Amino acid sequence: MNDKQNWISGKPLAIIVAIAENNAIGLNNRLLWHISDDLKRFKRITEGHTVVMGKKTYESLPVRPLKNRRNIVISDSPEDAFEGCLTAHSIEEAISLCDPHKMNFIIGGASIYRQFLPLADMLYLTRVHKAFHADTFFPEISTKDWECISTEQGPEDPSLGFEYTYEIYSRIYK
């Protein structure tokens, strides 16, 4: 892990997200697409790790908590508790619950992404090559802060109506 990242948060943090060309990520608290290969990739990357999410993201999951992962749910409501999950009431508390020895994955939603982006060490993006109507967006990614270290075209699936690319970014520390 990068020393600068450890100094910022004390824990290795990565954001994992699928975003459209217009940075869209959701509409009415739902994903904009169903990409089977991307869901398998998400599972493969995050299994055995801690996942951190906001309350709305947790509530949108078809199966809760996510199996074979340590789930942390951030809620600003002090009475909230989520079965099978750790509950944090702030970003700082969520970080304190993260694993110091393994990558911790931030999985949404938009507010959580915005708050964690300045603290993240890595970005795992699925870049959907189409713009979508949405009400939820991922923040802009600055090329002066992030370097793309891996790009891989997603498998062709004509039923989707768009192509997508898997990209991994590493933070540039100055």
Describe the protein's architecture and organization.
By secondary structure, the chain is α/β, with parallel strands linked by helices. It has one domain (3-171): Dihydrofolate Reductase, subunit A (3-Layer(aba) Sandwich), CATH 3.40.430. The chain is built from five helices and ten strands, in the order αββαβαββαβαββββ. The protein has helices spanning 3-9, 36-46, 55-60, 91-97, 110-116, and strands at residues 13-20, 24-26, 50-54, 70-74, 86-88, 104-106, 122-128, 136-137, 146-153, 164-171. The longest helix has 11 residues, at 36-46. The two termini are 15 Å apart. Residues 1-7 have low confidence and may be disordered.
- Total strands: the figure is 10
What is the average of the pLDDT values? 94
Helix content: 10-25%
Q: How many angstroms separate the termini?
A: 15 Å
As a percent range, the share of strand residues is 25-35%
How many separate structural domains? Answer: 1
Can you tell me the CATH class?
Alpha Beta
CATH superfamily annotation: Dihydrofolate Reductase, subunit A
| Poorly predicted residue ranges | 1-7
- Order of strands, main sheet, comes to 5-4-3-6-1-7-10-9
Counting H and I runs of at least 4 residues, what is the number of helices? 5
Shape: globular
Look at the helices and sheets and give the structural class. Answer: alpha/beta
What is the helix/strand order?
HEEHEHEEHEHEEEE
CATH topology: Dihydrofolate Reductase, subunit A
Biggest pleated sheet: 8 strands, mixed
Rg over alpha carbons: 16 Å
CATH architectural arrangement: 3-Layer(aba) Sandwich
Describe the oligomeric state of these chains in a short phrase: single chain
